[in-house]
């Protein structure tokens, strides 16, 4: 590991604690239903968008009186420079982007950013882009950098764009895009069901709760993956659970190894009953993962990306739409 990687691993242990252990030797297997469809970092789907002009805006920090500098702009595409990458698993990488070291990213809990990459021109000669949402997993209070955890799919247009980036290359980012407005102690019990790279918005919220001594929320995570090798940042998650009594985690995998001691198979009613808070006015269940898992657990979002109707095992167990949020 380079001196730089050791230094940033020490400076940002939550994002990097398990990111420099090399690639897993296991072969990549696509998710199977219900955990088995392609996972989206925020539960969204890549889409194309057309702009009449590129109108690139270089990195800037908003410096208003009595306001902290922030690097993001919800109305402009900002160029962020790639500083370093690290392997997290056999098909996932962590990308660190940098900006003004005196500024914060400007990310709220819980929110994501959107990225875009050029993919040529349309029939009218106008620039064409692929746009993709991602949830940064770095501390929102960190200055001068942010980290994206990205699963690299062989046929993924945006993920392959990231895979080819070299140090010093730039990526256009806009945001933040608010998903769920979280306030400390908004719910006494917070349950989370994540599949694959759907762990990223959960990590963002977990860290916000655990680093706040005035937040007494009890957080429970049910994390599903194809195999033990696919579990992202497991060492960090386990460390957080071991050091914070208000956070617990349970893992389940489709293809367990011989020495696997966690759950086996898809997320089940029994897993939810044993690992997550029961339905109630002071309970919030968060769900993020591949489409198959979403359909099985809670039902996917509506076509307009609103929350949509609650279905699946959460509805069967008595949770209501007011108790569930789909990322």
UniProtKB/TrEMBL annotation:
FAD binds at residues 132-134, 149, 151, 158-159, 200. It is an enzyme of class 1 (oxidoreductase). Keywords: FAD, Flavoprotein, Membrane, Mitochondrion, NAD, Oxidoreductase, Transmembrane, Transmembrane helix. Its cofactor is FAD. GO terms for molecular function: cytochrome-b5 reductase activity, acting on NADH. The chain crosses the membrane at residues 30-50. CDD domains: cyt_b5_reduct_like (cd06183). Pfam families: FAD_binding_6, NAD_binding_1. Residues 75-183 form the FAD-binding FR-type domain. It is found in: Mitochondrion. It comes from the Eukaryota. It catalyses: 2 Fe(III)-[cytochrome b5] + NADH = 2 Fe(II)-[cytochrome b5] + NAD(+) + H(+). The keyword Ribonucleoprotein does not apply. Its EC number is 1.6.2.2. Signal peptide: none annotated. One of its GO terms (cellular component) is mitochondrion. Belongs to the flavoprotein pyridine nucleotide cytochrome reductase family. This is NADH-cytochrome b5 reductase.
